[in-house]
Amino acid sequence: MMRAEQQYIDLFSQCEAMICRHSTEVMNAPRAQAFADFERQGFPTTKEERYKYTDAAKLFAPDYGLNLNRLDIPVNPYEVFKCDVPNMSTALYFVVNDAFYNEERTMKNEESLSHGNSSFRRKATILHSSLPEGVLLGSLKELAAQHPELVKKYYGKLADTSKDAITAFNTAFAQDGFLLYVPKGVVVDKPIQLVNILRADVNFMVNRRLLIVLEDGAQARMLICDHAMDDVNFLSTQVVEVFVGENAVFDFYELEETHNSTVRFSNLYVNQEANSNVLLNGMTLHNGTTRNMTEVTLNGRGAEINLCGMAIEDQNEHVDNHTIIDHKVSDCTSNELFKYVLDDQSVGAFAGKVLVREGAQHTSSQQTNRNLCATREARMYTQPQLEIYADDVKCSHGATVGQLDEKALFYMQQRGISLKEARLLLMFAFVNEVIDTIRMDALKDRLHLLVEKRFRGELNKCQGCAICK
Description:
By secondary structure, the chain is an alpha/beta fold. The protein has helices at 6-21, 25-28, 31-41, 56-60, 77-80, 103-109, 115-129, 140-146, 148-154, 165-173, 406-414, 419-435, 441-455; strands at residues 91-96, 99-100, 136-139, 177-182, 192-198, 204-214, 219-228, 234-244, 249-257, 262-272, 277-286, 289-298, 304-313, 318-327, 333-342, 347-356, 364-373, 379-388, 394-402. It has a 10-stranded mixed beta sheet. A 9-stranded mixed beta sheet has the order 3-4-6-8-10-12-14-16-18. The radius of gyration is 22 Å and the shape is globular.
């Protein structure tokens, strides 16, 4: 039987010139080394400690189509995606599979647009152009071609292909993605919403990159939504590199709402300089198999990271979060909170490591993982870790796995609340702590509603979204 990686080794060897031709020099430069690193490592299996709970080799084994020749995908995201968060005006952008959707170019190419749709798009374009001067936002491939020295300074600098096979695979095959660059001292008031849409008629793989750079004193907020438009098997790899300069502030929210036939591998790398403040919050409401890796490096004194996550699972869904917070210098703060609610035969995994290096005195770190198994068949694996090489620190960690409080259920039933409603209320209250870390009130209110609907079985997709209807 052929190893899972062999088909991709053969594919890259045959199509390397095509892959490079449809990308840009900055993304092509590390491609050959990344491929060599992938070829050396192969896909990880559960024998590798970091992938103990997710067998990547098995998930990559099926035959997936790839769009290496960059054929146009027939979709107008404005027609299929009508998501709106009440009371929150966002600058809205799309990535279709692994290509940034350039609405201005599409408008020029499509002369047959209806008046109403054209008007909608023109309005969106005006909103986008209202971003502050100097902000770069759009296709990673196109902006890297226009600003090669700027992108070259950052691309691939955090995502080490020699240490992770999925990162190496993505670097070898990714041809486009998304770039956000915020210059020194610039504040982007309008939240940026990026919608990743999976669209295909056959079983399909996408490999996308995100590069986010906030220079010293910059501020921005970003919401990423993952959706699957078609009922086929999808596998997506995503590598995100985030650079946050001194005194910069960045909020990064991810919301996954796909379907049971999707596989997602996402590796997020964050580097923070002195006195920067970052909030990362990843929420999985619907999925098939998800493996998220988050690696945060606190590289300057006074840096603070708030890392949160939430997973609501049922059926045979699988969510695996692997996190590393590296305190390299003194006087930094990290707060980590992950919560899972598992129903039916779903599986959850959390492995979180906080590393306090020698000399990183006055570190303050708190790591918490709380998990609720609603059935005896649900499985949760948790592995919190502290590795400390400094003596003047305040660090704590804790993890629990339990079931719904029978006494609380009985108490609520005694007051006329049905057992089903009591269970819903307790599960909803359990995850609220993660939602409440969101620093945008409109988004927080929206998530409260989506989570309640999810627990009631009423949510198959965002309300108002035409995808999968």
